[in-house]
Amino acid sequence: xxxxxxxxxxxxxxxxxxxxxxxxxxxxxxxxxxxxxxxxxxxxxxxxxxxxxxxxxxxxxxxxxxxxxxxxxxxxxxxxxxxxxxxxxxxxxxxxxxxxxxxxxxxxxxxxxxxxxxxxxxxxxxxxxxxxxxxxxxxxxxxxxxxxxxxxxxxxxxxxxxxxxxxxxxxxxxxxxxxxxxxxxxxxxxxxxxxxxxxxxxxxxxxxxxxxxxxxxxxxxxxxxxxxxxxxxxxxxxxxxxxxxxxxxxxxxxxxxxxxxxxxxxxxxxxxxxxxxxxxxxxxxxxxxxxxxxxxxxxxxxxxxxxxxxxxxxxxxxxxxxxxxxxxxxxxxxxxxxxxxxxxxxxxxxxxxxxxxxxxxxxxxxxxxxxxxxxxxxxx
Length: 380
What we know:
By secondary structure, the protein is α/β, with parallel strands linked by helices. It folds into two domains: 2-171 and 344-379, Glycogen Phosphorylase B (Rossmann fold); 185-331, Glycogen Phosphorylase B (Rossmann fold, 3-Layer(aba) Sandwich), CATH 3.40.50.2000. It contains 16 helices and twelve strands. The strands form two sheets. A six-stranded parallel beta sheet has the order 2-1-3-4-5-6. A six-stranded parallel beta sheet has the order 9-8-7-10-11-12, sandwiched between helices. This is Glycosyltransferase family 1 protein. It comes from Negadavirga shengliensis.
């Protein structure tokens, strides 16, 4: 089975970072693990070649037009198209599929509200429903997101059973074994750490640390630098570090902090990537509550929730973890357990492989039946 892997960011670069040992395999969305299993040949499609086509695509609301047009000229090279960010770079292909001009099966993962699914405009919701029905398989990374999508778009029950599933996208265990095996004890941990850029509320977190004796290190991007004029002395900002740079910082962190802010209509799997860092390093976590995430950090015993914009809530939980070594050790152990048994790249890739095989065999059977019908019609 030949599977073409596309994404809204460069998979060539993500794979290269993994090959160099700079990043985990989970950022290549199952390719590494499936390559090892040997049942699937996953081909990374060149991310971008003709930038002017993408500029044209933006005029029509179609992202990554260059990529999608090139796919149309490479149909013989793959059996199944796989896109971890669903609508981000498949909109044109779905339009063509809707009218019967694109026949290849498409498998996607969904971890944010589907395109226009919550829009008040009934026409846009109609298009949203038609688009999601074109996929041969949708792997939701959240049970809550799946149920809300079904309810909002009023999707047929049979479609849910045949084409929708859920699984957990987790971090690379081999990467952990190579770089993070030696845990740092509580008395050697010196600060709290918060890293990320999507839907982050660093401003609330900084306010919570104002006046505390504890140190906070924030790693963001140039686009997500917090808008704070008077940064407290106990808070450091860094917007140039790579994940490989962060490995050493994560090891000596007391806990990972994930502050989130987003409108309810955009509620999806915000914070999921940072949770991967939490369990990879066996750390406790404090995060803004996100009911859409499958992994409940309080239920699993390795974290605390605070409400959105809750400065006092952050102060209370940070102080508790900073001062209670026994609690810290208990949470660290449960974080490592979750990583090994519930939340890792092998669990995700095993499910992905089963979905791809199902779609592949069903599409093959469909083609045989279609040819049989054509021969029957010809005989008549």
